[in-house]
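Students often ask why we bother encoding 3D structure as a string. The short answer is that it lets us treat folding as translation between two languages. Here is a chain of 585 residues written in the first language.
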Amino acid sequence: MHTVEPDVVTDVLIVGSGPAGASAALALSTYGVPNIVVTRYARLADTPRAHITNQRTMEVLRDLGVEDEVVAKATPQHLMGDTTFCTSLAGEELGRVRSWGNDPLVQAAHDLASPTRMCDMPQHLMEPVLIDAAVARGTNLRFSTVYKSFVQDADGVTVTVEDRLRGDEYTIRAKYLIGADGGRSQVAEDAGLPMGGQMGVAGSINIVFDADLTKYTAHRPSTLYWVLAPGATVGGIGAGLVRCVRPWNEWLIVWGYDVTAGAPDLTTEYAESVVRKLIGDDEIPVTVKSSSAWTVNEMYAETYSAGRVFCAGDATHRHPPSNGLGSNTSIQDSYNLAWKLKLVLDGTASPRLLDTYTAERAPIGRQIVTRANKSIGETAPVFEALDGLSPQTPEQLWANIAARKDATEAAEKQRARLREAIAFKVYEFNAHGVDLNQRYASEAIVPDGTPDPGFDRDPELYHQPTTRPGARIPHAWLTSGTRTLSTLDTVGQGRFTLITGIGGDHWTRAAEAQDPAITTVVIGPGRQYEDPYGDWARLSEMADGGALLVRPDGYVAFRHATAAASAEDAERLLSAALRRILGHA
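And here it is in the second language, the structure alphabet:
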């Protein structure tokens, strides 16, 4: 048992203030759970790092009340544009991929799938939004505070931290500890979380710089410009990458290096030489702001918790930035965990509910690590189309690139190969299904006995909505008086919601009798919410009198496709479902 009095006491201690830690704090404070965030750094992120923010993350931020602020500060979707492949920004263009939902058909799919729009929100802008809102709602934040170790017992976790300003150590006693301390997570290591995969499979360098590149980019707006140039084909990225941080004067370059030889000396002169090479214009003023080396990883945790210690974000899934999945998955991890912690802490749920965190999120983490690394390999065919993978002189590579313009049968085949190779990058830049097709299977999901229908189309590229338990509730526009709102706007906010329609009176009465109370949503003509387009009727996969029980995170936990036979039947079914979800069954 714990005997020594701790210096500080809280319900949840979060180590790390990145996307995972900041969003965990925001969600917990939104739900009224006391929490402390400690970070070893003296400030929030000072470089852009993660940036692609997908629809599912925007839905989470919408529920947590910060969507509008993110939209106001982010680069909007239409300026994320067409991923461009070129020999340099000033050089020849080799092709483009309509990316991040900017293909007209993909944009239509985005509009049908969610009330939100994806955007480009660099991490140094995202973290302050999340942390400021968390602190405003009750989070205590401590900078320059280093996690040292933890000891847990049956009742909680005692964590030793070091104050870097004073140089002394103190203890924080928490009921639960969240390790959101990144890809070199000490919390995950101390917790002994089993890992699969490997670290350090390739090397890359980030170079952040300012330059007005309007004349090379504004006419073809894009988040990413891939530069195929001699010297850019080593490392995990496969090409030099010029990333727009803010249109069109803040930038970040990713440049590979041979990880077996070690990172080069990152002098300002070296960084500027790489910048010049990829821009292709020696006259434009350039200011290098920072440079740093990192390694491409392919590692994932097989278990996300050990007792009262939970990990989230890069601590549990470590991978390259391909597909833009990192911060998205991190924020979604924390969103999954926070409502469960809240219900366990207030006594509503059994601690068994927390076991579903690993069951639900570990498969997602493994999937996105695999997908991100697979995307790196999918760049190779672009080089192959230009015979750029075999050893040769820079002059020969330039000759290969120039040869695609010849009026010969060989050049025509080369052009076709290049078009196909570039088009195949759609799996990195428009993987809508990876973003939205997450399905959960755990004790917090009650199967309804229907067979898994699988997917009609490629599940990585295409979102397929369903109300089957374990899926996120489909988006459909409803009206309530003069308001138009999404089905997603009727759920969440830390509560369970029962959705039914005309003929579902037994369900609504059963929901109102539950503990915890369940919010009821009735959809139909003359009811609280109406379905003017008929979209919900098409997507609900149940009769009007059927019912869905939706969890606080917007996932369907229970479905009964038809009206309840009686009030007693509705009460029995709903109570049994809730007991299972809360870990009391």
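Translate back mentally: The two ends are 29 Å apart (CA to CA). Keep this in mind for the problem set.
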